[in-house]
Amino acid sequence: MPNNNEKMVCRVCGLIQLDPPWGEDGKSPSYEICSCCGVEFGYEDSSVNGVATYRKKWLEGGANWVDAKERPSNWSAEVQMKNVPTEFM
Ligand SMILES: [Zn+2]
Questions:
Q1: How many domains in the chain?
Q2: C-beta of residue 58 within 8 angstroms of C-beta of residue 13
Q3: In sequence order, what DSSP letters do the residues of 21-87 get, joined into one string?
Q4: Is 25 domain-assigned?
């Protein structure tokens, strides 16, 4: 399913970000930290393997939010991860 928000989401956990993690061109990482999974854009999410490794660690650790106060009360990792672009799933 084409998703216009694809460049706005974290490749690891699917959280919609305020700014595109990899820039408008998809090649200029912001080096911000995802408030959900804690990945640094431009670092652990630079490759499909990197994303898979980081996500596995995050899920095995209980899929905790780095910034716990940002976590919606009815949040589900499974639902949010549907936002992840297909090439990173
Ligand atoms: Zn994330």
A1: 1
A2: yes
A3: TT-TTSS-----B-TTT-PBTTTTTSSHHHHHHHHHHHHHTT---SSGGGS-TT--HHHHGGGS-GG
A4: yes
Q: What is the pLDDT of residue 4?
A: 59
Q: What pTM, to 2 d.p., does this model score? A: 0.92
Ligand 1 centroid to residue 28 C-alpha, Å: 17
Place of tokens 């949010």: 80
Q: From ligand 1's centre to the CA of 13, what distance in Å?
A: 4
How far does residue 84's CA lie from ligand 1's centre (Å)?
10
At 5 the pLDDT is 79
